[in-house]
Amino acid sequence: MKFFLTGFLVAIFIPFTGKTQLLSITPDFPKDNDNISITVDASKGNQGLFNYATVSDVYVHTGVITNLSTSSTDWRYVKFNQNFNQPNAQLQATSLGANRWKFDITNIRAYYGVPAGETIQKISILFRNGAGTTVQRNADASDMTAATSIMSDLSDAIKKSTSSKFEGGDSFLIEDGSNLSLIHI
């Protein structure tokens, strides 16, 4: 029996693309040279910016986690590596209303200045007020991150395969050494 992979993927990825997340990234599966928008929902996480009144006084503090980072908190290529407690117009977030802010990045690799050959694994980001005294984080107070490269590889495999029909039991390669088996539903 034949079926289209698209329905299967919709069922799998709906939880990952919902708008109820603390942090969302557009496009969903960015590559290191993509332009992206990162949106935070301050009603989630630690709610540091929830109902923050001065919506034009929200900035980001951002860097990346790469294959050369020593831990999941070892931010590299921090933008403008400045005093966290000072506003910087180049890092100002845009208010979307309803406790949501957005920050745009043009060409991830170029923006952070990550050299070729170094793999960007995650974008680390905090949304904060200009003084750095009110900070939006995860509920456990850890830094917020958005995955990039691992999900990009999966995205490529999906895009290449969504127009194909599969027989029950067929599979396709997703990442070096791992398969996603397709079953007939």
List the helices and strands and how they pair.
Blueprint: E1 2-4, H1 5-17, E2 23-26, E3 36-41, E4 58-66, E5 94-97, E6 100-105, H2 108-112, E7 120-129, E8 135-136, E9 144-147, H3 149-161, E10 165-167, E11 171-175, E12 178-181
Antiparallel strand pairs: 1-10, 2-3, 3-6, 4-7, 5-6, 7-8, 7-9, 11-12
Structure description:
The protein is α+β, with helices and mostly antiparallel strands and 185 residues long. It has a single domain, classed as Immunoglobulin-like. Helices cover 17% and strands 32% of the residues. The strands form 4 sheets. A 4-stranded antiparallel beta sheet has the order 2-3-6-5, with no helix packed on it. It is globular and about 45 Å long. The model is unreliable at 1-19, 151-168, 170-179 and 181-185 (pLDDT under 50).
Q: What is the terminal-to-terminal distance?
A: 10 Å
Kindly state the mean pLDDT as a whole number?
79
Q: Nearest-angstrom radius of gyration?
A: 19 Å
Number of domains: 1
Based on secondary structure, the structural category is alpha+beta
* CATH topology category name: Immunoglobulin-like
* The CATH C-level class name: Mainly Beta
Percent in helix? 10-25%
Judging from the principal axes of the Cα atoms, what is the shape?
globular
Query: How does the major sheet shape up?
Result: 4 strands, antiparallel
How many DSSP E strands? Answer: 12
For the largest sheet, list the strands in their spatial order. Answer: 2-3-6-5
Q: Order of SSEs, N→C?
A: EHEEEEEHEEEHEEE
Note the beta-strand portion. Answer: 25-35%
Catalogue the unreliable spans: 1-19, 151-168, 170-179, 181-185
The appropriate CATH architecture is: Sandwich
Number of helices: 3
